[in-house]
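Cross-check.
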Amino acid sequence: MNRIVDYNSCFKSIYYTLYSNDSASRAETIVSDISKLLLYKLLVEKRKKAIKSGITGIQIIKELNDELPNQSTKYTDFNLSDESINSIIDSLNGITISNAPSHIVGDAFQTIIGSRIRGDKGQFFTPKELVECMVSMLDLKEGSTIIDPACGTGGFLQESFSRMKEQFGVKDINCNLIGIDKDRDMADIAFATSAIALKGKTRIFNSNSLEIVDSQNELNYLIGTADYVFTNPPFGAKIGITSEAILSQYDFGHNWAFIEDEQKWIKLESLVKNQAPQILFIELCVKLLKPHGILSIVLPEGIFGNGTFGYIWDYLKHNGRIIAMIDCPRNTFQPSTDTKTNVLVFEKGADYTPNIMVAIAKECGHDKRGRVITSSGQPWQNDFSVISDAYRCGDDKIWHPATLTGSYYVPRYLASKAEYSYKNGFITIGELINQGFLKKKKGKEIGSESYGTGDIPYIRTSDINNFEISSDPTNSVSEEIYEQYAKQQGLSVGDILFIADGRYRIGKTAIITPHNIKCLIQSHIVILSLKDTAPFTPYELLYCLNTDIVQEQIRSYVFIQSTLGTLGNRILEIEIPLPEKNDEWTKKIHAFQKNIEMRAQCLDILKQYEHSQSL
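Predicted model, tokenized:
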């Protein structure tokens, strides 16, 4: 443990000193330069000689380029001054690189840069807990070729090497580890950490991975050679691929159309104008695999839950079989990004079957601020470790069988379809609507220019909590605005407000009473109106919507598009447990209703005091 602390402390000290005092302040650039100096120290240690004092950056660059023939691109000048270079060398004299355990140098780099390099290129470092899970799930074979086409600092390659060493119990592992990264700074870091940690077993290329499918590209020979591909590709709409030269090389660079009569997707001749890189990376990874090679890839949840991406799943089904999926926690990549992700495991060339296994991770080893220790001083729970162990031993309590049907492939949604049971049965919201017991409508957007024009509440998602409807005066509207929307909104006492879209509050509910009926409702909120003939009273339905069994369904049915969640039409699939209407149930609902109505009355009275004009 002390040894690890020594490396982390040394690297952090170097980084902060340079960031504060050197002109090269870009985090990636500083760390890239440190990586060159680590490589230089490694070379010096192997010669068993001391580093010359007063050495210049030009001299170091020359030695690196002369003695590292495996490097795909020659190093250029340092961004750091010679003074800073020699300061770092003095600091590095306190640690030994050549004998460092395989993971320590990489871990130290991640400690420095994990939360500091911005994701403006869609690059977000994969947390170590998830890397370990993805690699350790699979039974890696000695002699395998493992490729990461978006390798970043080389985390997947390093973990693969460490896993095989542990698995086979030998130091000299026979394997072929290949990393590619478009960003030169990242490629420099990956080359340095790999050269140090993986003892020359790795080749790192500074290249645009999406170009290698072109038969004229110098890395095209990698196509069809991988036994395993582990990767977390860059993702984001802001970094879409527009190059026709690249798009034309991919099926996913074309437009696709769904033929309703034949229930299938067809590729069109026309190219898309802009394609998200993660989508092209899916196809690239499949092309990199040899027959029966396995892909494990991190992808934004939007690909799993958006029906317009059906062609991606159709392509995968025609090129092999989906083995497994992992549903990742919302905060997996926080604090770097709030984007929700999942993991897809795919085998190329295997006979397709709709039957897969899914696992759901609720905790990822850190909170949304990146803290790994809880307030009680305990390590934050890491479900990824449990999931990988369970996969290897076939634990069906953690891994759930699921079937790929319909348009939705979000893992927790697939797992939920066979989980729920209740002694008196269920009725879905869709069935309540179809049988004429329930009406569903949405609120309206009134435009921010209407905010603050009067005293009538405009209820937004943030105004619903603990069954209570509050309101923000700064968003209240005038009588004129209210009259414009009130009739089409058509609120009645007993209507239930249900948050269906947003970030974290989906599934929260409240009820309309005589004390809060005069208001307008935002479009992210669904209004549920029960008929007198329904099998529930409004308060019974409100109570049932907030039971654990229903709230768990809601969490499973919410899909995250980018950073926003939506329940969509899946609200119709929510199964409401049918209660046993005995005396105990009647007393419970009566007390529930009484408390809500009393609170609504008290809030109304307090609001009148707020607007009192007399002493």
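The chain has two domains: 101-416, 426-610. The two ends are 69 Å apart (CA to CA). Passed to J.P. for a second look.
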